Amino acid sequence: xxxxxxxxxxxxxxxxxxxxxxxxxxxxxxxxxxxxxxxxxxxxxxxxxxxxxxxxxxxxxxxxxxxxxxxxxxxxxxxxxxxxxxxxxxxxxxxxxxxxxxxxxxxxxxxxxxxxxxxxxxxxxxxxxxxxxxxxxxxxxxxxxxxxxxxxxxxxxxxxxxxxxxxxxxxxxxxxxxxxxxxxxxxxxxxxxxxxxxxxxxxxxxxxxxxxxxxxxxxxxxxxxxxxxxxxxxxxxxxxxxxxxxxxxxxxxxxxxxxxxxxxxxxxxxxxxxxxxxxxxxxxxxxxxxxxxxxxxxxxxxxxxxxxxxxxxxxxxxxxxxxxxxxxxxxxxxxxxxxxxxxxxxxxxxxxxxxxxxxxxxxxxxxxxxxxxxxxxxx
Length: 379
Known about the structure:
By secondary structure, the protein is of the alpha/beta class. It is built from eleven helices and 22 strands. A five-stranded parallel sheet has the order 5-2-1-9-20. A five-stranded parallel sheet has the order 11-18-12-13-14. Helix 1 packs parallel to helix 10.
């Protein structure tokens, strides 16, 4: 009987894990000693950081989409079918199509999703760039926008923590290029008592905003949107009039996680070093779906996938594993259309943003193009 590995989720974390496992267990796969099955609910793989560039016509949608099958090692079996239940006691994943996938080892990479419906009026009165359709809708609205107050507001929890800053800086350059800065007020809000969850990033942001005349308000948690009056209300009692509302909607995990009793709101209890689902040595969690208190970002998923692939490969080949995740996260942060900064941090080392430069901007654009090699486990 071969060792059966099931991966639920075909995003960055699941795809990188699958390809690294296929490389590490190449001979075992060829000899029939190991089987790797991936279950995902879509045949396409989307590079989600590209949504930000779609907003400003810097990237076409076809540039950030690939067929999932084309990204996977040929020895990984792909099943396009949504997982409906994960039964950890009986070691089986059941899909909506009625198929059962028994496993010896399970990798949960079900990601996160936006839930704008949790804020009354947001779907009708606001924009976002956390989906392809949302990015296109915002792009079209920006083209018709002739001035006024642009409010950027962030829900919690959410992935890609630097994205609210990036959209704000890029909006400034967008309006500058259109000679509209005298007609626009950019107003940034954030739900805690600083401009970013990471204090060093927040401290770095303050002079950047002030030099550009970007106004801001902290301790602003979105409660309700009044589309008719164009008013955004906060839980703290503040009200903001807007002419264009751009938001980062709150996120939740996948429904299958909550339905399977694996975690409230779809977040899975995860050991922050081994990345095992708490209490299950044969179940790993990768990417956004973990409950680890660290940034939900593509690089997080990548570094976690490296660890999970090494640990799982060692378990299959040697019966034990020692590799651990140190909390590493790396982010390029766009500070406009032609400059970017860079941060890296882990559980022990805080981030230290570097001065923005054109070189870092081009490095980020370069990685956007190289992402597909990363997904294949090459980078």
